[in-house]
Design goal:
9 helices, Spore Coat Polysaccharide Biosynthesis Protein SpsA, Chain A, 10 strands, 247 residues
Length: 247
């Protein structure tokens, strides 16, 4: 069986409506639904780790509350790779009468390099202030990414723990998905999309994220990008949430 592991934070009426739709939709299928309802804003990876630690199924799919897709796509995603996005086409659903298709080019250019160079310029001073012992702007990583954790990703529960789980040093939304993919690639885990559609329902948000927290997230992302494989493994070995899970 597969557990759908979902973080829910009610920051708008849209989220409340989408929660009801999500439960109504997925309750028809042979999956276990585990939704962590956050009373206050909680970093996404912290919630994902909490969901994983209480999961008791072989497979876990970290899934947004605002998406739905065919159950058969989840089943087809099993064992395709270490991490699998069970779709390759996104439809943004503004309402039930307005659906916009966004096709992702899995073989397109490496778009990330431009963003990385911009980040290097804008937050370099911030990194100096934090006195990192080793930090280089390594732009050589292959950044032809899939859809990341956003929307849905399926993996084996044991793989998630072995991988290091979600990085709880991310304080707010933003870049945590990128770090997950960068870490997977650096540590030689496989990540793929499979054919299928996913529908992302519209939602507004009341969150205003402080820029200093976004800078924190970008710095954490660059650790997974710039460290060598062994340095990254050594860094992961210090993560308290992973050590707590071993006890």
């Amino acid at each position: 069986m597969i557990t759908l592991a979902v973080s829910y934070y009610k920051d708008s009426i849209d989220r409340e409506i989408n929660l009801e739709k999500f439960i109504n939709y997925w309750s028809k299928y042979p999956v276990k639904i585990d939704i962590e309802k956050c009373k206050t804003f909680t970093p996404l990876m912290e919630v994902y780790n909490k969901l994983a630690k209480r999961c008791d199924t072989k497979y876990i799919a970290f899934t947004d509350i605002d998406v739905y897709f065919n159950y058969e796509q989840l089943e087809a995603a099993k064992d395709v790779a270490d991490f699998v996005n069970p779709f390759d086409t996104i439809y943004n659903v503004k309402d039930d009468k307005c659906i916009i298709q966004q096709k992702h080019n899995l073989h397109g250019p490496i778009l990330g390099k431009i963003l990385f160079e911009r980040y290097a310029t804008t937050i370099g001073k911030n990194i100096e202030n934090q006195k990192q012992t080793r930090f280089e702007w390594n732009l050589d990583i292959n950044w032809n990414t899939p859809f990341f954790v956003g929307l849905c990703v399926l993996t084996k529960l044991e793989t998630f723990f072995e991988f290091g789980m979600g990085n709880e040093y991310f304080k707010v939304w933003g870049c945590a998905d990128d770090e997950w993919y960068a870490r997977a690639e650096k540590l030689k885990y496989t990540w793929k999309n499979i054919p299928g559609d996913i529908f992302h329902r519209h939602h507004s948000s009341s969150n205003e994220i402080p820029k200093k927290l976004i800078r924190n997230n970008i710095i954490e992302l660059y650790k997974s990008i710039s460290y060598t494989e062994q340095e990254l493994k050594d860094y992961i070995s210090t993560w308290p949430w992973l050590n707590d899970n071993k006890n």
